[in-house]
Design goal:
mainly alpha; 0% strand; elongated
């Protein structure tokens, strides 16, 4: 069925090659059925016709990300954002691309810019709260953002984990533990949840339970960045 849809769009485009709407349909269809080289080619052609079209920029960037070309996607988005700094869509896509490259510090001012325009943006609230906690920066504001995110998405495990992380950084360990234990019951193979629980237990002084949680986190194939943090916490747990 997807191949049939692609053929229909291609046939229509070949009959009317000057119709940008058909070129866009071709690019979108190619992206949907994972023909990413075709999608990239068509999105680039559309962008050449309309260089200021931020929607096309974001679609092209998403195509590049799906091809594993994260740095080129970031560069494309940076160029577009420099020309359209009031676009929350570009800001969010650029922030998430920075995150994908491990450069979360570059994402922070973008989340801040998004919240100035859209104070209830769930992703910006959650991610900025988490990164403020990472930095130990303005933890009261981080808590406010995390609580607002939880109000908007009370069943999101990631949002609850962010709230727990802020509580850990504020040394409110019992509150963090009460949030993390149900998360781990739901997602027992999430290394980040075990790491955060281990930190809360360690700060509370329960070294034995902390070591167990941290060792579990280490066994669940965490990211390289998280693995380093887990090992550092284990060394403190003794």
């Amino acid at each position: 069925r997807q191949a049939d849809a692609m053929r229909l769009v291609q046939d229509a485009y070949q009959k009317n090659p000057d119709q940008p709407g058909l070129k866009l349909a071709l690019a979108n269809t190619a992206m949907r059925i994972n023909q990413l080289d075709t999608a990239e080619k068509e999105f680039r052609a559309l962008l050449a016709l309309d260089p200021g079209n931020t929607d096309i920029v974001m679609r092209l960037a998403e195509t590049l990300r799906r091809k594993g070309q994260i740095a080129p996607a970031r560069d494309l988005l940076q160029q577009a954002y420099a020309k359209s700094p009031s676009s929350p869509g570009l800001a969010m896509q650029l922030a998430l691309t920075h995150e994908a490259l491990g450069d979360w510090r570059s994402a922070v001012p973008l989340y801040e810019a998004i919240l100035k325009q859209d104070p209830n943006n769930l992703i910006a609230l959650n991610n900025l709260a988490y990164r403020y906690a990472d930095m130990g920066k303005d933890l009261d504001t981080a808590l406010t953002y995390a609580q607002r995110a939880q109000q908007r998405a009370p069943t999101s495990d990631d949002v609850v984990d962010t709230l727990a992380w802020v509580y850990i950084r504020k040394n409110l360990n019992d509150t963090a533990i009460s949030l993390l234990k149900p998360l781990i019951a739901k997602q027992p193979r999430n290394p980040l949840f075990h790491y955060h629980l281990g930190l809360a237990l360690l700060q509370k002084g329960d070294r034995t339970a902390a070591r167990q949680s941290l060792q579990t986190a280490l066994s669940l194939n965490p990211s390289k960045e998280d693995e380093q943090k887990i090992r550092e916490a284990l060394s403190r747990a003794g």
